[in-house]
Structure formats: structure tokens, C-alpha cells
Amino acid sequence: MSSTIPLIPWGFLGDLGKDTQEETTKAPLPPATTIKKSFAQALRSSCDIATSQLPQPCIKGEAIAIKIPEEDYQAGLLRCKSHLHGRMILSKGDTPLKFAELKSTLTSMWSMIRKWSMISLGKGFYEFSFSSLEDMRTICSVGSWNLKPGILRLFLWSPDFNPNLQKQSHTQCWIKIYNLPQEYWSPRIIFSIAGGIGTPISMDEATHTRSFGHFAKVMVEINLKAELPDQILVEREGFAFFVSIEYENLPDFCQRCHVIGHVVHQCRKQIKKPEAEVTIKSVPKKPKQTDKPIEYREINDLVINLDIDKGDKHNVQNMERLTISQEPMGNLETHFEEELLATRVENSIHEERDGESSNDNIIVQETAKMNQVAANDIRIVIKTSFWSALNLKLFVVNNRGNHIPSLWGLCSPGLDPSILTISNQHISISLSVENKNLNVCVVYAHINHVNRRSLWLDIQVDLLATQGPWCCIGDFNATLGADECRSATLPSRVSKNEFLSFINSSSLLNVSTLGAQFTWTNKRRGNALFENKLDRSLCNGDWMKLWSQVSCGTLPRIASDHHPLLFSSASTTTPRICSFKFQKMWLQNIDCKRSIKESWQTEVIGCPMFILSQKLKRLKKELKHWNYNVFGNIHQMVKMATANLDTIQSSINDLGADEALLDQEALAQNELLKALNVEEVYWKDKARNTAFSTRLLQLDKKQKNSLC
After folding, report:
1. Coil, helix or strand for 661?
2. Over the chain (708 residues), what is each successive 10-residue block's mean pLDDT?
3. Residue range 391-574, CATH number
4. Cα(543)–Cα(707) distance, rounded to whole angstroms?
5. Which terminus of the chain has fewer CB atoms gathered within 10 Å of its CB, N or C?
6. Which CATH topology does 81-165 take?
7. Per-domain residue ranges for the chain?
8. What residues does 438 pair with on adjacent strands?
């Protein structure tokens, strides 16, 4: 039975039956063979580096170490040169943006640059990649971007960046801008001023509407690691002024670990001190005799010799390290911090023994276990040669019982001070300088005003017991008023009154301190900052009469929180510099007008005011020279003319009247009259200048007040 081809009326289906027939007549094709890949072969396309070319791991300590090829690392650095790091900073209550929302927001804000990309690093950090360095610089120049809500703070890309190791030092706070005139109250100007502190975010409603004019209030993102200024200089064309800045509710920030939330004294991260490389020698120590037998182990003294002269070649690197080789006592630093029992100072002066001088100043630190475990003494021996190298000698330290001395007396080897009294807060000494007997009291007062009361009594007893010139200098830990404090709180009134009563009852004068206004600071910021004038010098009237010059100034503060004081007393008088003044008596001399005319005719090129100032300066110099070399001292001229006339008249009395002597007498009388006329003009000029005497009195008062 033959197959018939069906009739298909649609042209586009005309070949359907033909194709179907051809498919039925064709021989079936063999099935296609597919090559199967292993799992390792399927993943090999992601890395074209053979395993044999990878660096081999090694064991370092208890860890497996891999050394990365340097060329690969440099290629990675080159790839990241146009990258930036960023972090999202959200305020309390803000809803964090998702990655897609953040990228969409930034895409609309960064429409001015070409293609860029971003990846999330975790902990709120992101890394941004840009097509060129120009685009990267354009975005980075803004610094922080306000996304509402939140701020994206961008910073330069840094190698070895680990989000888990980053510490948050930026915060948002409100600042108040004081002393800003109303014509400057525009958002652009206020934001420009706030930009000097950090990144401005927004203004409060009262500042925006100018409904409150005491201060402008702006929210700013600041870096707590940077120094926060108290004032900012605002400049415009031809004028400048300062505005004061006040910070509201700054969070606690630790300058040690750079973490927000606590301050330095609350920081749990202790900075370990490096082990000191010192020489160790054993010193035998006699056991103490006690009535009650107790258990104890052998005590070793570790003597640290600080007498390393410049000429000696010591191999410091090969010195034995300071260790305790007895019973295990834990960490040495913890042992000293927790179990420090006593510190004492001994001045041991013995005869030389075995060729070694024992005239040493020994600082002994004793430590012991509370459960009667053996103690260990560490003696820091500062030999006399150490002070001699500094051309000084140590003659006294104050008595603080079991604590380290806070006052150390050092003087020139040529001086021989005698000790009057010693306490835990002061040292009083007597010494002779330039054949003058002086008394000095050095003070390191207690921080509690109750404990300072005994100090005031001790000093008053010293002043009464030893009459003469007295100077009290040091850290009194007390102020005389609110003007000597800079802090958010006022000083204690009780402490101030007691200190002022002590000064008045002791007849002491407060020597004004030149230099820093406040000698102590707690080195904090914002409202936590405290600055006081605690260090000063006090002198009695006998001291002020003994010396012609008495001054006290501050030196730069380096490691301490106090400014060192430099006290000086001298007997030499410095010549007083007088201002130049044209003397009317100069006009009595004919040569004066000639000198003025010649000086004024000197040609000077410039504007009229410049010509006038230069001619006046030159004339002043010429008149000074002419007065000294030509005109002379009028008082000396009167004395010389009087002596000359007296000599001539004595000759006439002895030899009789002579024509020549009479002529000489007439000339001498004429010269004396001229000199007396000039001197009269001088004194009349002085008498009319009433401001001259007034100025002298004012200057004398200022000099006296500067010493009080």
C-alpha cells in the first residue's frame, strides 16, 4: 500500500510532509558521547596556577606560616591604589541601610563620576573602587557624606586593613558657637566655622530660624583623637575675630587604647614596661630579729648600679636581665604593683673599703608576699659620681615614711646648706650666698586641704624660729581665687581662705609668675579640662630688700603635668632705657640747627609717610650722637665752669689784680653764666613736664607690684 502525500493548503507548511518523510527514511544517528569531568577538573578553570608553583607552608611555633610572593602583593597594592575605605556612622535610633539601598543612594549622589563599585567588609566598613584617581580624589575630598539617616565617613585606603582591629574615635556631638555677630548667622558661614572642628551635619531649629541669639548650635562629627580647639579665628577681608567653642556631652575617650566609653585611669589595657637591662649583684642582708619565730626564706638584694661613666665601655646588651630566680612569684610588674610594701631612702656614708667608695645614695624598694613568702629588695644605687657628672650634689630628701620621696635637694658642690626642718610636705634649709644668709622653704603640699593645715603651721614655726630673708617655693596645691583656675567648677572656698590667711599671717608676698598663666593641667578636654595655678613662690620683706631683682617664671612642660618654675634673685641693677625726647636746651647751641638742617636735607625715596618716618629716625640718631659728642653733659659743664672760675679768682687773690687774670675771670664768668642758663632751661622743661614725674612713680609702683 503506497503512502499518499497529504494536501496542505498553506504554503508555509508545504515542506512539512516532505521533512517528515525524509526523517523517516534517514538512518538513525549514533548517540552523542559526552566527556565527564572530575570535581577537581571542574574547579581548575578558576585558577590557572599549578599547585607546584604555590609557596610551601612551614611551621613557626605552633602556627602554620605561608610566605606570600612579594610580586603578587605589589600587584594587589597597584590594583587598590584608587580605592577608599568607608564606614557608616548611625545615630541612636537610626535604621541601618541595606547594601542595595546604600549603593542606590550613593549612585544618585555620585553621578558626577564614572563607574565605581563597592563591597562590604563587615563591622559597618566598606571598600570602594573607582575607575580613576581623579574620581577617587573627587569623592574623598568631601570626607563625609550625609545619607539621612547616617553618615558615610570616607578615608584613604590603607594596606593590611582589618575591620575587626579598627577602633571608633569619631563621634557626633552638638557644639555651641559663642560671640558670633548676627550678620554672620547664615548656614554657609556657620557650617564653615564648624568645619574647622569636624564635619558639620545639621543646625538646630533655633539657630536655623534665628529665634535664639546667644549662641549658634551645630551638630558636628569630630575625631576625639585630634585636639579640640576652644576658639576659632574667623577672618574676612580686612577684619578678624575669635569665636568660642563649647562641646556638649562629649563621650569619654581613652587616649591610651583610643576607644570610646572610658578614660585613661579606667582603662584595663595596661602598657607593659620594658625590662630594664641592668647589672645584678647579690648583697648579703641580715635577718631581722623578731620576738616571734616566723617562717622566712633567704632574701636576695638586687642592686642596680646606675653609675655608668662616659669613659667606661659597658656592654649593655650582654648585661644580665633583672629576674628573680627563687620561688615562682608570678609577673614581676604585677608583683610590684600589688605587693609594694615600703620604699625608703638611705644616705650611706662609710669609709672606703676594698678600694671602693661606699658614699652612695641608695633607694631601697622592699616587696614581700602577704602569706609570709620571702621578700625581695631592689636597691637602686646612685653613686656620688652620677651627681658629680652633673656638677651637683644631693644633700637632702623629704621624709614620707614608706613612700618615695617627693622633694630632692640638689645644689652646687660649692654650697653647704644646713637643714632646718624636714617633713613629708616641705624642707627648710639655710645657706650662704654672696655673703648673704638666706632661708629657703621648698613645698610639695598634700592634695587635701585638711592635711595642708599642718604644713601652714610648720612653715610659720620655721619663719618665727629663724629670722631673716625667706623664700617659699614649690607646689602648694592651692589657689588664691577663681582667676587662678580654668575649669567648669569653682575652686574650694575653704582651701582658698586658709591659704590666703597663711600668706597674710606670715607676712609673705606673692611673686608674680611670668610665662604660663596656669602651672598645672589634668590634660583632658572639654568640660573635663582643669587648669590651676598651683606652683608659685612667696618671699618675705627681708628677701625683697636684700635683692634688687626678684623674678619667677615658668619653663615648658614636657613629661609632667606641671610647669617647672625658675626663680631668680640678683643684686645687679639694669640700666633704665629712656625714650628719646627733644631737649629745649639744645636750641641754646648754634650748632644744633645746623645738624638738624644737614640731617633733614638727606634724600629719601618713597611715599611721603615713609620719607617722614625715615628722616625722623635718622634725625634721632644724629641728635643722640651730637648730644653725646658736641653738646655734652650740662651738669658736668656747670661744674667745670665753676671750678675754672674759682681757680682764676684764687689766683687773683694770691697774685693780685692783673690785666690778663681779669680778662680770664671775665671769660670764665661768661662761660659759667651760659652753662647756668642752659641748665635753667633744662630744669624748667622738666618742671613743666608733670607727666614725667607721674610716669616715674607709676613705673616704680609697677616694678614693686611685679614682685608681689
Report:
1. helix
2. 52 51 52 60 60 78 83 86 84 80 88 89 87 84 77 81 78 87 90 86 85 88 84 87 88 79 74 44 44 40 37 41 38 37 35 37 36 39 71 87 87 89 93 89 92 92 92 93 84 89 92 91 85 93 88 89 91 68 82 86 86 88 85 85 86 80 86 86 73 53 47
3. 3.60.10.10
4. 11
5. N
6. Alpha-Beta Plaits (3.30.70)
7. 81-165, 170-266, 276-287+294-389, 391-574, 584-697
8. 431
